[in-house]
Write a sequence for this structure.
């Protein structure tokens, strides 16, 4: 592979990474339009690379690209919001049970760091970052379970969950409660698969019940401000 191709790939990956983080941290709200010329200007790259990045994010379910209109941060419907959490409730409890059978001391320590970082973000009033860290916590449980196919499904579902919560959350109440995560870690530490499964099931149902599932519009935001440029 040529140096030019390596550079182009790196640029696309960087655009995707920064825009994805802005979406997950709710600096870019659902429905926000991403204008190609503005993305080009911010990152100093060509339209070709920007289009590759936007198509990659569309594939991940984070963007919707409409012909003759452009790219928008995906805006899940109420029906999809419920379906996303129903799907997670089907997959994650069994994954938690499997993780409890495989978790090592290093795994437990890593999960505890997730919780500490999430609390620190909440203390700084960075609720969007706390939500991203919460999603990473759930993905790490799938990693511990060594269920790679399910982990890929969950990665997409948790990305959609972030968009759902950006639209329908009741602020801090919709974030994963610290007690729920602590209880899950304790179950994994004790290798108690049955408790881990039940705790995860109840946790996801609680999270769904805390969402305010009514249609609403999100306000406009500057792309530069969202990327902190």
């Amino acid at each position: 592979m040529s140096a030019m191709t390596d550079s182009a790939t790196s640029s696309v990956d960087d655009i995707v990474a920064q825009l994805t983080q802005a979406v997950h941290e709710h600096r870019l709200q659902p429905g926000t339009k991403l204008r190609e010329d503005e993305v080009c200007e911010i990152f100093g790259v060509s339209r070709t690379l920007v289009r590759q990045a936007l198509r990659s994010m569309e594939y991940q379910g984070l963007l919707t690209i409409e012909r003759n209109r452009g790219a928008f941060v995906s805006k899940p419907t109420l029906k999809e919001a419920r379906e996303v959490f129903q799907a997670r409730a089907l997959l994650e409890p069994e994954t938690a049970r499997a993780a409890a059978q495989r978790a090592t001391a290093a795994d437990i320590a890593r999960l505890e760091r997730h919780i500490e970082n999430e609390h620190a973000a909440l203390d700084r009033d960075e609720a969007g970052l706390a939500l991203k860290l919460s999603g990473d916590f759930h993905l790490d449980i799938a990693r511990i379970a060594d269920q790679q196919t399910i982990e890929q499904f969950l990665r997409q579902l948790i990305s959609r969950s972030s968009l759902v919560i950006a639209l329908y959350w009741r602020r801090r109440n919709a974030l994963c409660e610290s007690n729920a995560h602590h209880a899950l870690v304790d179950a994994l530490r004790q290798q108690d698969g049955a408790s881990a499964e039940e705790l995860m099931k109840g946790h996801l149902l609680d999270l769904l019940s805390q969402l305010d599932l009514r249609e609403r519009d999100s306000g406009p935001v500057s792309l530069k401000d969202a990327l902190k440029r």
